[in-house]
Amino acid sequence: MTTTAERTATSRRAQLKFVLILGGLSAFGPLSIDMYLPALPRMAEDLRAADSTVQLTLSAFIVGLALGQLVLGPLSDALGRRRPLLAGLVLYVVGSVLCAVSPDAWLLVGARFVQSLGAAAGVVIARATVRDLYSGTAMTKFFSTLMLVSGLAPILAPLIGGQLLNWTSWRGVFVALTVFGAVLLAVVVFFLPEPSPVRVPARLGQVMRTYGRLVADRSFAGYALASGLLFASMFAYISGSSFALQGVYGLSPQAYSVVFGVNGVGIVLAGQLNGRLVGRVSERALLSSGLLLGVVGGAFVLASAVFRAPLALLLVSLFLLVSSIGLVMPNASSLALASHARSAGAASALLGVLQFVVGAAATPLVGLGGPGTAVPMAATMAGFAVLALVAYLVLTRKSQPAGLIGEA
Known about the structure:
The chain is mainly α. Helices cover 79% and strands 0% of the residues. α1 runs antiparallel to α9, α5 (82-101) packs antiparallel against α6 and α12 packs across α15.
């Protein structure tokens, strides 16, 4: 007969296992995008391709990541999570191998698209699996814990990629991604049971009706747009901060890397703070606080850029805005998925696609002012933070969905 302490220890070990596995799956996107960025100039030279052609490898990956989620999310609702996930992981490994051996840039673009379809399975099914296993505040706490693992990926990926380039070529970066995918494939095969007993039809008409129902759900749309629009601020920061901080404010590449890493740690810390507060403070209150923090941070970022305030004020403002992601994403994801247990895969797909589509729309706005100014980046970040808060306030309504297992 097991004691309470033994049951608690077993439960914690099981949760740690899920955190590591699902965190690894969630990290596919940032690892696959950020790890090879330091190698882009070498790739263009090695493949004798224009920079714009090599940059298409990034565009192809983002498009495939969005389309793959739209397909694999509903498919996992119909077939269960394991089979689409295993197929996706195999596809990721195959795509990574093709990337490593691609003889020219256009074949590399195609290989990146194949790789991204596999990565989409990890991203969308990890989020849906959390909904299968948890509900209520327990789901929000788990999403917050998950950020400790997945939130470190965009911080560490460029550093890992840069270090790999010290002793291997860009092809070695894709070999490392192949190994990462293969390890996760083995872990899922042996340690991740089927979490979703619910099955819904996978016919095209039914899938489209499911997506239509989700889009028409004001509450879901509000939470999804709030997270997607704030994520667009993050995209603007990622695409514009290196030019603004180095070109305008004179930071060295090393100093910029430190700033980028500190802001990434801010996301992780905010996520862990959220996990400690949820249960004592409602998810909606925490989400509202995160969105307000983003607006305040965005306003100060814009003011700092417009009036050329001291660098310290800009850095603190950026930290506030970027860290707000750690409060917004767990609560918005939990609240958006709460009422959609039967279609968690489709709902997870829409959440993920919105982040990338809106984020991709924000990226070109950063360069409108040309070099020598941080105002376009700051205005884009502040504007999308405000839009996120407005979408949340206009579209959402307070709801208390019934809990499933794991509610605490």
